[in-house]
UniProtKB/TrEMBL annotation:
It is found in: Cytoplasm. One of its GO terms (molecular function) is helicase activity. This is M10L1 helicase. One of its GO terms (cellular component) is cytoplasm.
Length: 459
């Protein structure tokens, strides 16, 4: 398992000086392409620097291998834009190096101003092929099958959030990689959102299992303490697992680490970032940056829309945003606040409310749109509030009751997480119930009365 790669920046240097040893090794492996044609896998819990490592790998490939042509994809526009933004922020690439290709129907309104300039040359697919780094969603990569493209045009196909894509979706970009010497890199976390599959038949036959998840359950990717003990128990040629979390305050990390990652997440975040709100006036307990705000609101659907909203929760979310953004002592910029709701209707309602008080710049979106993202403060509205449907509890909570969706929602915050929801309903879901118990034990629950099974935790 020799290290024979020369990095662009000179002996042992990386463009990003903060990379840890595991991340550096992953970059070197990807660059050396020793595992070809087997895909290289980079996986690990939220905030462990998977995307950061991908960015370094792209820069190193681009600068070290002059003949390389890289296709970088993610299943959602949000995760794809994030790669473009982070490459831009690296300040390494010269103009004309990368292009962001969008689906023809994508409205420019949703695109970050920093990303917009990279989209211009992406409108003409033939022109886009001149760029050595092409960034697009997995589905939009399909447009390259219509273009005049040399077989094996791409030397590298890199997929971030690969766990969120269905296998056929993943195969769209992979089908474009050079058969002769192409390198495929799959990056993601099988414990975060998987592909959304609506057909029951497709579900029954396993279409909800991503390629990342299926591959990593094959022998060569499995943990093997005896053979690879010195390399974190995985074959370093093929796979790297990251476990140091650089995103969140320890109080926010403890529960997801216990529920989904056998408590193996290490808290490594920059203290000057994650402790900024420990003395915020609205915290029930200073020094513990979590609030669970219980509200017995009402869930509503409009007309025939399948999407739910909850006005009482929307107003409470607006209050918190206002207190965060407009309070002189708080010093949270609007661009550092994210609001998550599991339903599009609630997202719309909250956007409308925030616009009415000049806070339209706060990002509001569904959990899907937040996968891969991070914000200093996150406000989550869980929406569902129908207390009488106890017969079929899972159905009553709909797709809110999904551990992967829960995991993504609660791991986006760096310094503060506020959850607004109805404890009488959420107690029926194992993950939200664990969050309620955690909040009560740590004395950060505020709001309405509690269901009888939790009352004993309220001192
Ligand atoms: N080695 C490191 N040193 C310091 N900060 C780091 C390091 N690695 C990552 N970070 C920071 O940690 C945060 C999370 O990184 P990143 O978004 O790449 O994680 P991720 O694994 O892709 O998360 P997700 O699963 O949510 O997509 C970012 O702010 C990043 O800059
Ligand atoms: Mg990421």
């Amino acid at each position: 398992v020799g290290e024979t790669v020369t990095l662009q920046q000179g002996a042992g240097e990386f463009f990003n000086p903060v990379l840890n040893e595991q991340q550096k090794l992953a970059v070197k492996r990807i660059l050396s392409g020793e595992c070809r044609p087997t895909p290289y896998v980079l996986f690990g819990p939220p905030g462990t620097g998977k995307t950061l490592t991908v960015i370094e790998a792209i820069l190193q490939i681009h600068c070290t291998l002059p003949d390389s042509r890289i296709l970088v994809c993610a299943p959602s526009n949000a995760a794809t834009d994030l790669i473009c933004l982070r490459l831009h922020q690296s300040n390494v690439l010269k103009p004309g190096a990368m292009v962001r290709v969008n689906a023809t129907f994508r409205s420019t309104e949703q695109i970050d101003d920093m990303v917009k300039p990279y989209c211009k040359d992406g409108d003409d697919i033939q022109k886009a092929l001149w760029f050595r780094i092409i960034i697009t969603t997995c589905n939009s990569a399909g447009m390259f099958y219509q273009a005049e493209i040399r077989l094996g045009h791409f030397t590298h196909v890199i997929l971030d959030e690969a766990g969120q894509a269905s296998e056929p979706e993943t195969l769209i970009p992979i089908g474009l990689v050079s058969e002769a010497n192409g390198q495929v890199v799959l990056v993601g976390d099988p414990k975060q959102l998987g592909p959304v599959i609506k057909s029951q038949m497709a579900l029954a036959f396993g279409l909800n299992v991503s390629l990342l998840e299926r591959l990593t359950s094959r022998d060569i990717y499995l943990r093997d303490e005896d053979a690879f003990g010195a390399y974190g128990a995985y074959n370093p040629l093929l796979i790297t697992k990251l476990i140091k979390n650089y995103r969140s305050h320890s109080a926010l990390l403890a529960l997801p680490s216990k529920l989904f990652y056998h408590k193996e997440l290490e808290v490594c975040a920059d203290a000057s970032v994650v402790t900024t709100l420990l003395h915020w006036g609205k915290l029930p307990r200073k020094g513990f940056p979590l609030i669970f705000h219980g509200i017995r609101g009402r869930e509503v659907r409009e007309g025939h829309s399948p999407s739910w909203f909850n006005a009482t929760e929307a107003v409470q979310v607006m209050r918190y945003c206002c207190q965060l953004a407009k309070n002189e002592n708080a010093a949270v910029s609007v661009t550092d606040i994210g609001v998550i709701a599991p339903y599009h209707k609630q997202v719309e309602k909250i956007r409308f409310l925030l616009k009415s008080i000049d806070l339209a710049d706060i990002k509001v979106g569904t959990v899907e749109e937040f996968q891969g993202q991070e914000y200093t403060a996150i406000v989550l509205s869980t929406v569902r509030s129908h207390e009488s449907l106890f017969g079929d509890e899972k159905n009553c909570l709909g797709f809110l009751s999904n551990p992967k969706r829960f995991n993504v929602a609660v791991t986006r915050a760096k310094a503060l997480l506020i959850v607004v929801g109805n404890p009488h309903v959420l107690v029926k879901d194992p993950c939200f119930c664990a969050l309620l118990e955690y909040s009560l034990r740590n004395r950060v629950y505020v709001g309405c009365d509690l269901p009888s099974e939790l009352e004993h935790l309220q001192k």
